[in-house]
Amino acid sequence: MTVALDPGFRDYLLGIADVSERDLDKLVEELMDHWSETVEAWVRRRHGELQRQGMPNRLVYGTIAREAGTRPFASRPLSERQVRRIVYG
């Protein structure tokens, strides 16, 4: 995914950050990928991460519901029940 930044904004970022043009392009691409993730994809990914860390589902659902409120996607707050429905359908 190649992200086209406004040239003025790109120059501004290059002026305030100690990074090469190539590294800035990579960073912007990573950020855009991160922020474009849907709430459903994030919930499923985060569920897997927490399970791999050994967290039991009874704690996973509440953790995800709380964390979802801090994420930059357009979503209403999620309840633990909504998290379970996203994970298991």
Give the DSSP E fraction (strand runs of 2 or more residues): under 5%
Give a short account of the largest sheet.
none
**Could you spell the SSE succession in H and E letters?**
HHHHH
What is the count of distinct domains?
A: 2
Q: Which structural category do the helix and sheet elements fall into?
A: mainly alpha
Poorly predicted runs are none
Provide the gyration radius in Å. Answer: 17 Å
Query: Average pLDDT, to the nearest integer?
Result: 88
Number of helices: 5
| Terminal CA distance | 29 Å
Q: Total strand count, please?
A: 0
Index terms:
single chain; 89 residues; mainly alpha; 2 domains; 5 helices; 0% strand
Helices and strands in order:
Blueprint: H1 7-16, H2 21-35, H3 39-52, H4 57-68, H5 80-88
Question: How would you describe this protein?
Answer:
With 89 residues, this protein is an all-alpha fold. It contains five helices and no strands. It has helices at residues 7-16, 21-35, 39-52, 57-68, 80-88. The radius of gyration is 17 Å and the shape is elongated. The model has no long low-confidence stretch (mean pLDDT 88).
Summarize the structure.
With 89 residues, the chain is mainly α. Helices cover 67% and strands 0% of the residues. The protein folds into two domains: 1-36, no CATH class; 39-88, no CATH class.
